[in-house]
Amino acid sequence: MPSPIRLLARGAAGTTDTAGILDGVSSFALPRSRAVRVGLALFVLGLGFIAADVLPFFADDHDTPLWLNLACLLAPAGFAVAVWAGLRAGREEQRAALRELGG
Fold first, then answer.
1. With contact defined as beta carbons under 8 Å apart, do 54 and 97 qualify?
2. Alpha-carbon distance 6 to 13, whole Å?
3. Which residues, including other chains, have CB under 8 Å from residue 85's CB and lie 6 or more apart?
4. How confident is the model at residue 63 (pLDDT cuts 50, 70, 90)?
5. Which of 22, 60, 78, 83 has the smallest count of CB within 10 Å of its CB?
6. How many Å apart are CA 15 and CA 21, to the nearest integer?
7. How do residues 69-84 score in pLDDT, each as one tens digit?
8. 24: burial class by Cβ within 10 Å (0-12, 13-18, 19+)?
């Protein structure tokens, strides 16, 4: 069975020639935008704080400090920053591509 990328890259004639279509595509691409990287870092840090906040509940310790509960809010804040920056970067790339095409 062909890979999904090959299926998407099929031409009108049904060929699987992907020359030029997948140039520069890697299996794991790091985000180019600094804001996306910061958002992802905040999200991961927030997930760490969430784990540190939830795990003591399994040991019947229900009195966690306020700063730990507030630090858990880094996860949704980081997610929002990453999504916002990703959308902004995508729109910027789309505008640049349209300018290149003369549209």
1. no
2. 14
3. 33, 35, 36, 38, 39
4. confident
5. 60
6. 13
7. 999 999 999 999 999 9
8. exposed
Sign of CA dihedral 22, 23, 25, 31: negative
Q: Which amino acid is at 14?
A: G
Q: Please name the amino acid found at residue 86.
A: G
What is the Cα 65 distance to its own chain's centre?
30
Report which DSSP code applies to 28. S
Amino acid residing at 62: H
Helical pair 34-54 and 74-101, crossing angle rounded to 10 deg: 160
**How far apart are the C-alpha atoms of 93 and 13, rounded to whole Å?**
29
Distance between CA atoms of residues 64 and 59, nearest Å: 12
**CA dihedral (16, 19, 5, 103) positive or negative:** negative
Mean pLDDT, residues 41-58 taken together: 94
In 3D space, the residue among 95, 79, 10 whose CA is nearest the CA of residue 45 turns out to be 79
Residue 82 burial (CB count, 10 A): 21
Q: Is 11's pLDDT higher than 50? A: no
